[in-house]
Amino acid sequence: MDLRSVLRTCFVLFFLTRGSAMATPLMTDYSAQDYEVSPKHSEASKKSFQKSLSGLYSIESWRAADIQQPHLNFEDLYNVAPSAQQELANLMNEVGMMTDTSIVMPDVKSRARAEKKIATELNGDASKITDLARASLVADDIPGLVHAFELISKEATIVSVKNRFKSPTDSGYRDLKLLVKLPESELIAEVQLHLEAISDVKNGEEHKIYEQIQHIERTALSQNRPHNEFEMAQISKLRATSKSLYHDAWQQYLQPASIAV
To answer: Under a CB-based contact definition with an 8 Å cutoff, are residues 191 and 89 in contact?
Structure first.
């Protein structure tokens, strides 16, 4: 090979090598730029979530003094209950659409159950029964639940709040339980705000556990005796299982995948 050919070959190799070296940083810069967006979104999501969680914990439990229905007579009260239930349904459907939450609307409390509750729990005072009209709202996440609470408080007069997210039951169950005064009928209605995973435990595994505990307690009661050691151990184990289920369900809302880094 003559000198001219050698020089030509070296010149071509130099440009090929230089071109390859220049291409690599461009790919690296693109990848780095692509991954810079994620932390910003994650940080914003975290701040939004923390604000919602703080908002949930800031809801105080309280109850207005002397809560009464607008009718003292049970017949008058029960006659307006269906229209009040429809008024509540309209309110809840509006809240559900604005917060992307699910609404559960049971029938008006049955006459037999209402009369029994008034007689056994309310000293015969029909004006004290507050769950003839009732509804439940099930949210996918804490921000949705807090938003729903805020909307309900704007559309109806809240007269009682029990925040069991802040102070859960002994079993670990959590929800927001409200009594609201409906604007048109002025009937007091019960509204419960749930998180989906906790609601699933309550209506699934925890309900089975509750039935098992009830069976053990009824057996001892029917035999007119206290629980024996084996039964007490069974009940303790079942209650521990229930608490663990609720704990796990609650934890998934404290570490949602949408804000994970």
So the answer is: no
Residue found by looking up tokens 């307006």 in the block: 80
Q: Please tell me the distance from the alpha carbon of residue 179 to that of residue 157, in angstroms, as a whole number.
A: 9
Pick the CATH number of 60-195 from 3.30.70.20, 3.30.460.10, 3.40.50.300, 3.20.20.70: 3.30.460.10
Query: Which of 65 and 47 is assigned the larger pLDDT?
Result: 65
Pull the structure tokens for residue 199: 């609601």
Helix or strand or coil: residue 135?
strand
Q: Where are the alpha helices (DSSP H) in the chain?
A: 3-57, 74-99, 111-121, 142-155, 196-203, 205-222, 229-254
- Beta strands across the sheet bearing 157-163: 62-63, 157-163, 176-181, 188-195, 134-139, 102-104
Question: Which among 245, 248, 135 is positioned nearest to 193, based on CA atoms?
Answer: 135
Contact residues for 155 (Cβ-Cβ < 8 A; gap 6+):
91, 94, 95, 183
Place of tokens 């909307």: 151
Cβ count near 166 (within 10 Å): 14
CA dihedral 163, 164, 165, 167 (to 10 degrees): 100
Burial status of residue 173 (CB atoms within 10 A of its CB: 0-12, 13-18, 19 or more): buried
Cα dist from 227 to 143, 170, 211, 223, whole Å: 44, 20, 16, 10
User: Which of helix, strand or coil describes residue 2?
Assistant: coil
pLDDT tens sequence across 38-63: 344 477 788 888 899 999 999 999 99
212 vs 189: CA distance, rounded Å: 31
CB-based contact 172:243 (threshold 8 Å): yes
